[in-house]
Specification:
With 220 residues, this protein is an alpha+beta fold. The chain contains five helices and nine strands.
């Protein structure tokens, strides 16, 4: 139950409320959090926001590929692409998301997919082409980033067309396709904006679930 009123679910099958999968192994989910967003900076501070998110993801053992402020249905938001080790077996999972924060709540749309039995082929082929010296780069959001997965050019979008079935390519493409189809209830759109951590957040808080807002119309 979220303030999302429409969302293009073409190709997806609902597995449980708010979670869908497709034939390529993508998992699409939507979430509502009736809490002050835990973003490390305001959306109009992109460098500080990116640095904070990169540190949070690295602390969890992953790597932030990108964090880009934008908007969803006219509401300021931040798009993230993250990679995480699978842990139980070799390979990585890739997660793409939009976080749409308001003063006292947020909505998140997330797409994720994991590598299968074959792992590391995209990275190996790109490294062979550009060379190790050009492959690994300092993280663009934070100097001296330590921990987590390394930042490298193999995750850049310019390589997606060459690896159309790679989970990162699929996640990025699905997020691009879905984003323009997302619409929100006008009451969510009218809530006070998120002004950053530690800033006085204006009321009102959103009404609790079940009072008319949190109904999702599923468009196939």
């Amino acid at each position: 139950m979220t303030p999302i009123t429409s969302l293009d679910l073409t190709g997806f099958t609902e597995r449980e409320p708010g979670v869908w999968t497709d034939a390529a192994g993508l998992v699409l989910s939507v979430h509502f959090f009736p809490l002050v967003p835990d973003l490390p900076a305001a959306l109009d501070e992109p460098q500080r926001l990116g640095a904070g998110l990169a540190q949070l993801v690295a602390g969890a053992g992953g790597g932030l590929i990108e964090a880009v402020p934008g908007s969803v249905d006219g509401i300021p938001a931040v798009r993230q692409l993250v990679k995480m080790p699978l842990g139980s077996r070799p390979g990585q999972a890739f997660l793409g998301s939009w976080t749409v924060p308001r003063a006292a709540s947020s909505t998140v749309v997330k797409v994720q997919a994991a590598e299968g039995a074959t792992t590391g082929m995209r990275e190996a082929m790109i490294m062979a082409q550009v060379g190790p010296a050009e492959y690994f780069r300092p993280h663009p959001y934070t100097e001296g980033q330590t921990g987590g997965l390394p930042y490298h050019v193999g995750d850049h979008e310019q390589w997606d067309a060459r690896f159309p079935d790679h989970p990162l390519t699929l996640v990025r493409a699905a997020l691009h396709r879905i984003t323009p189809t997302i619409t929100f209830d006008d009451r969510f759109k009218a809530l006070p904006p998120f002004d950053g951590p530690g800033a006085p957040q204006s009321l009102p808080h959103p009404p609790p679930p079940g009072r008319g807002w949190f109904r999702r119309r599923k468009d196939a």
